Amino acid sequence: MHSRIRLHRGDITKLEVDAIVNAANTSLTPGGAVGLAIHAAAGPELKAECMSIMRGVFPGQAVITRGYRLPAKYVIHAVGASWHGGTNGEHEQLARTYRSSFALAAEHGIRTIAFPAISCGLFSFPAEAAAEVAIGETVAALERVPSLEQVTFALFTEEVWAAFAKALEARTLS
User: 12 near 114, Cβ under 8 Å?
Assistant: First the structure.
């Protein structure tokens, strides 16, 4: 099971997977570092498709677009949870973000998917808490969606990498 979860240190836009996940904001405009990198690599067509999505995307939700110039066929735009101290339902909201992303992956026949550390940037979610949610939801999704072959987490900073490695190791030992 956990051999289907991989940690990658580097640029999510370079990964050859069926879909990458954008840590999006509610307007689907390029915001944080991940969103800017994804939009730049995908080209202006991605922005145009995002602008054509007429409904709001709220925290805990995700939508899917084409990948355009990316190696990935799809981009799943997932709106994470903003951190407000941990007592305002942030963990469950972040879990819903992952569940929404995995539901879209199943619906579109996605076998390989790469996530950034959703909510760890501009949304200020603590890395260890976010990693526990991400790994927990991934393990559950791999059990629910047998067609999902590989989930990669593209992690940029040493702090986030260490948090995800710790959460993955804890799941492996349990």
Answer: yes
